[in-house]
Amino acid sequence: MRSSRFGGTAAAVLLVATAAASCGGRGEDDGATTASGACKGQQTTGITDKTLKLGGIYPLSGPASAYGDIPKGIKAYFDYVNAEQNGIGGRKVEFVVRDDGYQPPKAVEEARRLVEQERVFALFQTLGTPSTTATWDYAGQRKVPQVFVATGASKWGSDTKHPWTIGWQPNYVSEARVYAQFLKTEKPNAKVAVLYQNDDFGKDLLGGFKKAIQGGQITIAQEQSYEVSDPSVEPQMRNLAGSKADVFLNITTPKFGSQALAADAKLTGWNPLHIVNNVASSVTVLRPVGFKNVQNVVSATYYKDPIDPQWKDDSEMKLYTAKMKQYAPGADPSVPYHAFGWAVASSFHKTMQAAKCPTREGLRDAMRNLNNVQIPMLLPGVTMTTDKDDGFPIESMQLMRFKGERWELFGEVIDTRKAFGPLTG
After folding, report:
1. Per the domain annotation, does 351 fall within a domain?
2. Closest by alpha carbon to 278, among 158, 157, 396?
3. Full residue range of the structural domain in which residue 411 is found
4. Region for 113 from its dihedrals, namely left if φ exceeds 0, alpha if ψ lies in -120 to 50, beta otherwise
5. What share of the chain is helix, strand, coil (3-state, %, to 5)?
6. Residue 23 lies in a domain
7. Using CA atoms, how far apart are residues 66 and 282, in angstroms rounded to an integer?
8. Cβ 73 vs Cβ 56: under 8 Å
9. Strand boundaries in 168-252, DSSP class E
10. Domain contains 16
11. Nearest CA to 349 among 332, 374, 330, 321?
């Protein structure tokens, strides 16, 4: 009788263990026991009942190192949630950050390290269009969610062959539409000079702008490209000044954004309306140029600016400021890239909470089934929406103009889905 009871208990334990192991997918179970029922057979690598491990890839060094502030905001958010909210769904979040120096081959190397050695649950944020392009095939092959990548390339939402990768910020084509619409109202006969980064990022925004101005009187007077390895864009700026264009569209990353703004201020006889794309619009980009030299520059945004006084009594801004000081005491809360990081981490939090299964597949499905999700750090009226045919979480932006020592919002939030129709292909 004793032998019979022991045998029954052992069989039950074996059954539970087998069911738990089946959730791992390809033998990659890390101990999660909640992936049961409809979730059986799905991947639980990097997630247990108590922990959740994420990996991010950023240019902490190199020509785009200004973006290294973003993971500071992300980590502060996760540290706050871990300490004061018992993590996400009872799971403490570990966020592992790797540096690719804005070099695609290095990004691939770091993605492999995160997935195969660190055994992360998901790649949360790979920054840059070139780096994400270099890694999304690998993420897809390994069936690892590549969540809310820090790049606005339109392909993250329109491509159907990479269901494991999705963007977050407004895509560059939608951003270009906003600038085109602004010029159609303010300068319907504008002649535009364009500086753009010679890669998928620069070409995507420029291509979107060209398409958006079709059928009107706005023309491209001249365009100049630069490489991320270039020491300076001053030669390109001198060439563009010769075009006598009355609008300058600045499609750059932070280092070159500062250079272009400085060059524009120095050039005599050329005083165009200066539009700088969102990714190079941080005050940390403008400050070295001198605020007096960037007055009335125009850009667009979708999340709250920590130094805009209209948010001083905003509950989320108060929380963000307090927790940045508490959990990232060496990081300045007024830096917009920190607020960006906080906002995207909050977006991940809500997406993970909405997952029907605590698995990689559950996260993949949740990030493509967002229904008007509100994120407190986003501008009022800006929400996240996706479905199986729409992989663009955020497609609303508001224009802003630099005045004094900060950006001032103007106009209304523009939902580019409604204003211009859905973005495809």
Report:
1. yes
2. 396
3. 173-301+400-420
4. alpha
5. 45, 20, 35
6. no
7. 10
8. no
9. 191-197, 219-226, 247-251
10. no
11. 374
Please give the span between the terminal C-alpha atoms of the chain, in angstroms, as a whole number.
68
State the chain's mean pLDDT as an integer.
91
| Residue 176 tokens, joined | 């270009």
The count of C-alpha atoms lying within 13 angstroms of the C-alpha of 288, restricted to the half-sphere facing its C-beta, is: 16
Give yes or no: residues 384 and 406 share one domain.
Answer: no
pTM over cut 0.85: yes
Q: Are residues 64 and 157 in the same domain?
A: yes
In this structure, are 142 and 156 located in the same domain?
A: yes
- Confidence (pLDDT) at 424: 56
CA distances, 266 to each of 192, 244, 294 (Å): 19, 15, 11
Query: How many whole angstroms separate alpha carbon 411 and alpha carbon 419?
Result: 14
* Digit-coded pLDDT (tens) for 129-142: 999 999 999 999 99
Asked if residue 22 is part of any domain, the answer here is no
Render pLDDT for 243-276 as a digit per residue (tens, 0 to 9): 999 999 999 999 999 999 999 999 988 999 999 9
Residue 268: which CATH number?
Answer: 3.40.50.2300
* Measured distance CA(68)–CA(159) in Å, rounded: 28
Which residue, chain included where needed, has tokens 């007055």?
295
Domain count, the chain: 2
